[in-house]
Amino acid sequence: MRHTTSLFVTLILAQGCAHHESRAEATARTSVARSPEAAGGERVCGNAQVYFPSGGVELDQLARERLDRYASCLTDHQIDAIYVSGTTDPAGTAEENLALGRTRARAVADYLHDRGCHVDFVIRSFGERDALESPPLWPVERAVEATAVAAH
After folding, report:
1. Element (H, E) at 142
2. Under a CB-based contact definition with an 8 Å cutoff, are residues 106 and 144 in contact?
3. With contact defined as beta carbons under 8 Å apart, do 49 and 143 qualify?
4. In what order do the strands lie in the sheet with 9-14?
5. Which of 30, 65, 90, 133 could bridge 128 with an S-S bond, Cβ 3.0-4.6 Å?
6. How far is residue 29's CA from residue 94's CA, in Å, rounded to a whole number?
7. pLDDT tens digits for 5-16?
8. 11: closest CA among 131, 120, 88, 95?
9. Which residues, 6+ apart, have CB-to-CB distance to 88 below 8 Å?
10. Domains along the chain?
11. What are 88-125's pLDDT values in tens digits?
C-alpha cells in the first residue's frame, strides 16, 4: 500500500463512543497524526486489507469477514487511531479516483465503527497514485488498508 504524504486527501473523523451519535455528527479533529508512521505509536493487529470490484464501494462477504476478524483483534487493545487508506486502478479521472478511494475508505471505517471500534479514524485516498499500468493487475489496486495504532 502506498504511504506517500503528497497528493492525497485526508479526512479525520472523531468517532465517539456514544451509540446515539451518528457518523454525520462526528467532528473533525487535527490532533491525530497524518500517518501511522508519524503517530509514533505501535501498530496493532497488523493491517486489514480489502478489495473492491471496478468502480465498486460495497464491502463483499470476504471483506466483511476480514474486517470482522480485525475488529475482534482490536477490541483487546487500547487504540489511538485507525488509519484507513483507499486506492484505485487508473480507470477514470484523477478526481474521480480520489473520490472513489475516499468513499471506499469511509465504507471500511464505518464498518469498523459499527463493529465497536470507537476511536479516531484517519481516512485517506491516494486514488490512482502509483497504480500499476497493466489492466490484468488492476484488481489489486482497488483496495483499502486499515492500520490501527496503539495508545502510548
Report:
1. none
2. no
3. yes
4. 9-14, 120-127, 79-87, 143-150, 43-51
5. 90
6. 26
7. 222 233 333 232
8. 120
9. 97, 100, 101, 104, 127, 128, 131, 141, 142
10. 9-150 (3.30.1330.60)
11. 999 999 999 999 999 999 999 999 999 999 999 999 99
Query: Taking Cα atoms as reference points, which of 83, 67, 76 lies closest to residue 34?
Result: 83
3-state DSSP percent of the chain in helix, strand and coil, to 5: 30, 25, 40
Query: Which residue has cell 483483534?
Result: 73
DSSP helix/strand/coil, 94 = helix
Place of cell 482497488: 142
pTM: 0.76
β-strands 9-14, 43-51 pairing:
unpaired
Q: If you search the block for the grid coordinates 489489486, which residue do you land on?
A: 140
Q: What is the pLDDT of residue 84?
A: 97
- Angle, CA of 99, 104 and 110, to the nearest 5°: 120
Cβ–Cβ < 8 Å for 149, 79? yes
